[in-house]
Amino acid sequence: MENTVSTQLNSAQLGRAPHNDKRALNSSPISTPKELKRQLPIDFQLRQQIEQQRNDIRACIAGEDSRLLVITGPCSLHDPQAALDYGQRLQQLQQAYQDKLLLVMRAYVEKPRTQVGWKGMAYDPDLQGKGDMAKGIARSRLLLLQLARLGLPLATEALNPLVMQYLDDLISWTAIGARTTESQTHREMVSHLSMPVGIKNSTDGSASNAINAMVAARHSHHTLGMDGNGQIAMLDTPGNADTHLVLRGGHGLTNYDEQSVAQAVEQLQRSDCRTRVLVDCSHANANKQHRRQHAIAVDVAHQHRRNPGTILGIMLESFLLEGRQDNIEPLAYGQSITDPCISWEQTEALLQAVYQVLAP
Ligand SMILES: O=C[C@H](O)[C@H](O)COP(=O)(O)O
Ligand SMILES: C=C(OP(=O)(O)O)C(=O)O
């Protein structure tokens, strides 16, 4: 989307900057988290469902549940209808595979970028490059609410700690991405979050920053943030012990093979961290060749059988149509506008193959 979304400032925007700060742009106030949660509330039953789903994932991390955790879905959500279509299909697969797989839908509304590009529904819901976070955050919350009501646990990447305050109650698993693993702000945020969190190895492929993040996040912190009323406040975070490492490869090297996993597990043990790792079958592990995800997932499923206690699960980038698209006009239904994904049919085949490894 880099080509279709302008990130340049126009003169009208610059003209609105106050005299004493020529770099400051227009600011548009938006509702507080409490106001938005009041408009789009979660009821008692849904709250209980999400708490149960978080507990199910916690049990997998702790090794009390031997099912393979599968985080699967589009690289990013941009079209609510296609996302709900995907969610309905996934929910049906969950019924079929529930004894061996715990399926969680990737529902990412924020995207970290290597340089510039579309940053997700929360920022630019109309894909026009204009940015409308009031609309974007509200649309994201509504969509997550509709997806959660399908009965699926949801996964997202927490990028901006303020955005997370509007959505956190709907999420069962959160990722800290490879580009933010080393950030103190993100480690403090994890310490504050109430759900299990997967922390990715850095883009250079090293697991050390992620393991340092796991250690930092299990401690409590004092940090500057925003409370539910939109008030800037010092937050005392409780610490989050429900974290795990996500291996996503890096710098042209993969790290999902048995030896890399064993090395990571050893490093985790030395830092007294949870040892079960989740393998991201996409990103640098697949060198963004989406079809490679199938072979990687099957390999990891075999490791899960051979070495119980090392593999927690897999992550897939999957949507309705295979690949990705650059042009938003016309927009193909169900195809990624960020990273390439496997199609729905390829996803069904992959999950069936993984299931067969686990339940021969
Ligand atoms: O998962 C998505 C991308 O890998 C990540 O957001 C970085 O994308 P970019 O390198 O295209 O900016
Ligand atoms: C951006 C992502 O991954 P990573 O942080 O591993 O690049 C992602 O999973 O969408």
From TrEMBL:
UniProt xrefs under InterPro entries: Aldolase_TIM (IPR013785), DAHP1/KDSA (IPR006218), DAHP_synth_1 (IPR006219)
Gene Ontology terms: cellular component: cytoplasm
Pfam family, one: DAHP_synth_1
Enzyme Commission numbers on file: 2.5.1.54
Keywords: Amino-acid biosynthesis, Aromatic amino acid biosynthesis, Transferase
Annotated spans, Disordered: 1-32
Pathways involved: Metabolic intermediate biosynthesis; chorismate biosynthesis; chorismate from D-erythrose 4-phosphate and phosphoenolpyruvate: step 1/7
Biased composition, class Polar residues, residue ranges: 1-13
Residue ranges occupied by any DAHP synthetase I/KDSA domain in the UniProt entry: 59-351
Superkingdom: Bacteria
Any one GO biological process: amino acid biosynthetic process
Catalytic activity: D-erythrose 4-phosphate + phosphoenolpyruvate + H2O = 7-phospho-2-dehydro-3-deoxy-D-arabino-heptonate + phosphate
PANTHER family: PHOSPHO-2-DEHYDRO-3-DEOXYHEPTONATE ALDOLASE DAHP SYNTHETASE, PHOSPHO-2-DEHYDRO-3-DEOXYHEPTONATE ALDOLASE, TYROSINE-INHIBITED
Family: Belongs to the class-I DAHP synthase family.
Task performed by this protein: Stereospecific condensation of phosphoenolpyruvate (PEP) and D-erythrose-4-phosphate (E4P) giving rise to 3-deoxy-D-arabino-heptulosonate-7-phosphate (DAHP).
Name the UniProt record assigns to this protein: Phospho-2-dehydro-3-deoxyheptonate aldolase
